């Protein structure tokens, strides 16, 4: 599914003394199969933006188009398209509530009006996608699972509704490094298998440079930078001005450059290690 955001602005508490402009003139296009990271400091407008992408919020001005249709229009097609844009909120395991894992994953399809058999089929498929064995865990209480497993179940609940676009707001928050990597590798695999369009909100720049194909940097509700991870994170001054930490690779190579070590600019930590080895072997 192609998502186009056109001149999107949003004002909280419009017309009141404490009104706040959260987004101001946002424009971008996400093509089918894109993996777009949306980053920025706290208060930059990240969550407000993604909540527009499936119609949770309506623009004060501007449009969000899904395959050319304004998702906030009264066109029946708009409602159908909104249902194909799934969102997983931060700490999604707090939204688990059913007595068993399978019932929790079936909740979304049931709400869409599918039969019991179809709901179960969708839930089993979604659980397999996220690596939760339906035979082993289907009848287990979701509250008996580990943090990483709960996160997978919550994602499965959205996947069971067969979205074409998946929005993930800090999906790895609170997980250890291995758990974080496992979730992002799983999401990338599912994206490729299902040809999903992914929007990822993250504060972890190392995850962004490793997994995203494009990056949107927000600052005070406007787009400060947009491009590939390499393009974006080679604008070190702009990234820092947007209130972001640098990924480990550019951060360490920048430190070495400041100490007189002549390195090529790098993006990932592995690239930085290879570049350091190359420089010191040469010397």
Model description:
The protein is α/β, with parallel strands linked by helices. The protein has 2 domains: 3-245, 3-Layer(aba) Sandwich (Rossmann fold); 247-283, no CATH class. The chain is 42% helix and 21% strand. The protein is built from 12 helices and 10 strands. It has helices at residues 46-53, 76-82, 101-111, 116-129, 134-137, 147-159, 177-194, 205-211, 229-233, 236-241, 248-258, 269-282; strands at residues 3-12, 20-30, 35-39, 61-66, 69-70, 85-88, 165-169, 197-201, 214-219, 222-227. The protein has a 6-stranded mixed beta sheet, with helices on both faces. A hairpin with a 2-residue loop joins β4 (61-66) and β5 (69-70). α4 (116-129) crosses α6. The longest helix has 18 residues, at 177-194. The mean pLDDT is 91.
Helix/strand layout:
Blueprint: E1 3-12, E2 20-30, E3 35-39, H1 46-53, E4 61-66, E5 69-70, H2 76-82, E6 85-88, H3 101-111, H4 116-129, H5 134-137, H6 147-159, E7 165-169, H7 177-194, E8 197-201, H8 205-211, E9 214-219, E10 222-227, H9 229-233, H10 236-241, H11 248-258, H12 269-282
Parallel strand pairs: 3-8, 3-9, 6-7, 7-8
Antiparallel strand pairs: 1-2, 1-4, 4-5, 9-10
Helix pairs in contact: 3-4, 3-6, 4-6, 11-12
Quickly list its features.
42% helix; four-stranded antiparallel beta sheet; Rossmann fold; 2 domains; 12 helices
- Tell me the number of structural domains: 2
Q: Give the C-level CATH assignment of the largest domain.
A: Alpha Beta
So how many helices? 12
CATH-scheme architecture of the largest domain: 3-Layer(aba) Sandwich
Question: What's the order of the H and E elements?
Answer: EEEHEEHEHHHHEHEHEEHHHH
The helix-and-strand class reads alpha/beta
- The CATH topology of the largest domain corresponds to Rossmann fold
Assign the CATH superfamily of the largest domain. P-loop containing nucleotide triphosphate hydrolases
């Amino acid at each position: 599914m192609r998502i186009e955001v056109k001149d999107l602005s949003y004002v909280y508490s419009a017309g009141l003394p404490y009104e706040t402009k959260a987004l101001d003139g946002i424009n971008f296009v996400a093509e089918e199969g894109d993996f777009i990271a949306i980053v920025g400091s706290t208060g930059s407008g990240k969550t407000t933006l993604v909540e527009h992408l499936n119609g949770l919020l309506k623009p004060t001005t501007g449009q969000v188009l899904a395959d050319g249709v304004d998702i906030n229009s009264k066109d029946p097609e708009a409602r159908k398209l909104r249902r194909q844009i799934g969102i997983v909120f931060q700490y999604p395991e707090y939204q688990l509530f059913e007595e068993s894992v399978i019932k929790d994953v079936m909740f979304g399809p049931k709400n869409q009006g599918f039969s019991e058999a179809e709901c179960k089929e969708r839930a089993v498929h979604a659980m397999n996608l996220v690596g939760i064995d339906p035979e082993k865990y289907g009848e287990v209480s979701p509250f008996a699972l580990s943090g990483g497993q709960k996160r997978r179940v919550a994602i499965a609940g959205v996947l069971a509704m067969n979205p074409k676009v998946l929005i993930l707001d800090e999906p790895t928050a609170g997980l250890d490094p291995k758990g974080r990597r496992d979730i992002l590798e799983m999401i990338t695999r599912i994206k490729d298998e299902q040809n999903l369009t992914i929007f990822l909100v993250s504060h972890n720049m190392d995850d962004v440079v490793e997994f995203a194909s494009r990056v949107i940097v927000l600052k005070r509700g406007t787009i400060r930078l947009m491009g590939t991870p390499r393009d974006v994170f080679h604008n070190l001054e702009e990234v820092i001005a947007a209130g972001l930490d640098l990924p480990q690779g550019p951060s360490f190579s920048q430190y070495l450059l400041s100490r007189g070590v002549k390195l090529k600019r790098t993006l990932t930590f592995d690239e930085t290690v290879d570049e350091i080895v190359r420089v010191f072997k040469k010397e």
